[in-house]
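Exercise 7.
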Amino acid sequence: MAKQTGKSVGRGGRVAPASGGIPVREFADRRERVLKALDGAVGLVFAGESAPPLLGHWRPNPHFAYLTGIGDEAGAVLLLDPKAEDARRRCVLFLRASDPELEVWDGYREQIGTTLRARYGVESIMRLRLLPRILTTIVRRRKRLACLHGPAMPEAPISPDLTLFRKLAERTVGVAIEDRTELLPAMRSVKSAGEIAVMERAVAASAAGYEAALQALRAGGDEAAITRALVRGFEDAGADGVGYNPIVGAGLNSTVLHYMENRGPVGGDDVVLIDAAAAVEGYCADITRTYPASGVFTKRQREIYEIVLEAQEAAIAAVKPGAGMWDVDAAARKVIERAGFSDAFMHGIGHHLGMEVHDAEPDGKLKPGNIVTIEPGIYLPGERLGVRIEDDILVTAQGRRNLTESVTKDARQIERLLKR
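Solution. The predicted structure, written as tokens, is:
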């Protein structure tokens, strides 16, 4: 999905419990890495507050999900105290109080005990009412607090850890608050073998959805039918849902970067731009393809399509360890500018991908284990013609691997698939 600040994201697959595709041990290892990196400072990670929504699923803060695998404990807090005298208290998970009357409405919750501790791989689980007292005692001893949640924009609420740390600092002499907000984005951006495997399942489900969408794509049809087939194809292939709001835009709508109405007609001379992908166990794919509604690209459509494809291939070739995304962007932009369409490519080349469609963006250059999208486009509203092609690229030690190459983007192959 073309990156733009403030875009709308649809419901993704609900974050898997700790018993899902990522093993419990991996979540524990992630917490150990954070503890080591904190170097004695105390950190907090908040799941976030919310009532169960009536549309979609409640989703925890991705930092919290990354460190715990827990997707259904609103209000939970993870305390990280590297210097805890009792090793079992280096990580403490605080959960909101059990409320039998509320659980009749929202679902029954397991009581704190051996089974719950084993499921989450956390030895110390307590109720939230104990957090203020325990944290106050720890802060008086450690004197160092580390902000892990990302910084907020000026008009946005202050991050929950900084908010609480400021209150503690006002009440405790000599407390220092440190900026460690780059720690978790850097960790999340380098995917483990388990994470890659889950994302490959999301890609496979996405590919099935695109196959279903091609069966529904026809001149004289409508965007809604394609969207229904696409999403049903994801779910039939084992996806938990969509990774973000699908974009299915025909004709003029193909030139709207984040078009999401998906209700317009499909004309015989239109291209149909589909930007959609599945989510599996809290991780998502991100794919865009552009198809001719008639089944055959016109001369002009093919001209623009091939320019975008050439730009994308140039950008993919630039993906490697040590490259910056600005280098990758420049490779695509050079092709598009040479063709005379520089003003028609108005977004960046891509973004990191993982637990969020626009995943945590670390500072610096690409590393093995990063997964990034590569998605150049040309948008010509005056011609009712928009073309974007997007793939998900894993950075490897040797260079790169295209995770989404099974969803064909070759123009001739597309025409063969659309031939009925």
